[in-house]
Task: structure prediction
Amino acid sequence: MLSEKMNEALNVQLNKEIYSAYLYMSMSAYSSYIGLDGFANWFMIQYQEEMTHAMKIYDYINDHGNQVKLMKIPQPPTTFDSALDMFEKTLEHEKFVTNSINELVDLAIEEKDHATYTFLQWYVSEQIEEESNDNEILSKLKLMGNDGSGMYMLNKELSQRVFVPEYTSKALSGSQNQTDNKSQ
Ligand code: OFO
Result:
């Protein structure tokens, strides 16, 4: 069992991951609307990745016999000034998530919760990768400025991104039911 405080904190993080998914889905929708299909693809894959981050926490809470409590998801912004604006907001949001993960790690240390500390290391590494990816795209956007051909090339590059799941949720794959059936 997780402590009540840790369970609460993980549920809050689960909500943040779902908000992240929602935010990137909104950016994907806006990219499609302004004709940047490559950007739309990149953000939609980011949406899928965020949902796996959320489901990983969902499974972890379940596995400990604690309760997953879903919360209200805030509305994300629906319009953006430009592709640059979207990536500036993406990086800003990821920095916020990194801080949030670091606070969870601090809590795990404080509570001597070694299992959760180990579990969170995956998120610590993931955040380094996410911020680095965002910084890379942001640098390209800043470098190209108003150069239309640069934007054309970057849009093409981002259209190549594919979703490679790093985690498959037990709850989604049905293996949770198989375990439940076995115990009946
Ligand atoms: Fe973007 O890494 Fe989860 O939130």
Remarks:
- The domain at 4-170 is CATH 1.20.1260.10 (Ferritin).
- The longest helix spans residues 114-144.
- The chain has a mean pLDDT of 94.
